[in-house]
Amino acid sequence: MVEIKLRKGKEKAVLQRHPWVFSGALEKIMGTPENGDVVKVINASNEFLAYGYFNNQSRVAVRLLEWDETKVINEDWYAQKINAAIALRAHLLSNKETNAYRLIFSEADFLPGLIVDKYADFLSVQILSTGIETVKGTIIDILSKVLKPKGIFDRSDATARTHEGITAENGLLWGEAPAEFIAVKENGITYHINIAEGQKSGFYCDQRDNRRILAEYAKGKSVLDCFSYSGGFSLNAFKNGATMVTSVDSSALAIETLKQNLVLNKFNKNEHIEIQSDVNKQLRIFKEEGKKFDIVILDPPKYAPSRSAVDRAARAYKDLNRLALMLLENGGLLATFSCSGAVDIETFKQIIAWAALDAGKEVQVIKQFSQPEDHPVRLSFPEGEYLKGLLLRVL
Ligand code: SAH
């Protein structure tokens, strides 16, 4: 196995179990590893630190997997990690109300670059590192044997792959191809998911808990669900007795799926308006019309893909939240989210404070949202914490 020596002092993060070694930390590569090979990382005194996947195309030159020198990274090791991830989610697997969740969450489950989502009888897989790509066959074999799904579908079309120097993939990996729309359940609500063409891996199961929590406030209220996708927040609000729900999303497939989901759950279509439009534009129209809502939800896509994009993202979040706050009367609620890992909760609060000031509204935080337990955060890897949100009341 090729050994990679770190520069003196650069072993600190590895000792703290951070799973990324940046290219600038490398002193010497003893050999010529292929991208995706498992290498041994050693310190300046030649002592073992960890095993990881090498990649000279990426800013993260080694993605660490294992800190125990006696372990061998072979098929048994992968089976053990996959089984451990599934075992940690055992109570979710037995939940009769939900059959859509994340089984493997990359670094959080010691499999950097592997994401596996379970949607009823199908698995949707994202392979975002060259290391996992190299052992794809082994992983698929283990997943098929352990979980016995009907089919495993590849949704490795995220931009993260380009940073690793590998091309996008989308297609059937194993078993039977899913139908264009398959039905899943979450919080007792049925959703259609298009595994092949839906966003991300098909569904945003990271908002499961937040949808349920927010719905508790929806009884008898008018709700505006911005960036609705297939209606996660909208449908939970309906289930809990919202009187009127308006959903806005710019994607035709999102709106089409949302309409199917309203029918599947037998919600009254007269109490729902779906608008295929740009949210910023639509919020301005509502403002001009003098329209008000009791609850506004903002769940935009990732505005800051990296740290360098935070300033620009902050301006976009601020403007969006300012517009949303203007549609609320005193006592109204704003649920506002950010899924940008680079924007931490304190920064996000600051941005929303500026938005409130600009909107001329006094607000109080009544709840803080985060990501659910199937998207756990290792404290040694704070970058894994990406989803955050605030529930605000306008005073
Ligand atoms: N709230 C959703 C997930 C939102 S993901 C849920 O619970 O499932 C972000 C959504 O924003 C996507 O559906 C995407 O189509 C939509 N989107 C992105 N930019 C947009 C824009 N400018 N205006 C409206 N929708 C947008």
Account of the 3D structure:
The longest helix is centred in the C-terminal third of the chain and has 16 residues, at 310-325. The strands form 4 sheets. The chain has a 7-stranded mixed beta sheet, with helices on both faces. Strands 2-6-5-4-1-3 form a 6-stranded mixed beta sheet. It has a 5-stranded mixed beta sheet with strand order 7-8-9-10-11. The mean pLDDT is 96. The protein has 12 helices and 20 strands. Helix 11 packs across helix 12. It has 395 residues and is an alpha/beta fold. The chain binds S-adenosyl-L-homocysteine. S-adenosyl-L-homocysteine (SAH) binds next to helix 8 and strand 15.
What is the name of the CATH architecture of the largest domain? 3-Layer(aba) Sandwich
Radius of gyration: 22 Å
Q: Which structural class best describes the helix and strand composition? A: alpha/beta
How are the strands ordered across the major sheet?
Answer: 16-15-14-17-18-20-19
Bound molecules: S-adenosyl-L-homocysteine
Mean pLDDT, all residues: 96
What overall form do the CA principal axes indicate? globular
Distance between the termini: 63 Å
* Major beta-sheet overview: 7 strands, mixed
SS strand fraction = 25-35%
Query: Given this structure, which CATH class of the largest domain is correct?
Result: Alpha Beta
Number of helices: 12
For the record, the count of structural domains works out to: 3
How many extended strands? 20
Which homologous superfamily in CATH is the superfamily of the largest domain? Vaccinia Virus protein VP39
Q: Percent of residues in helical segments? A: 25-40%
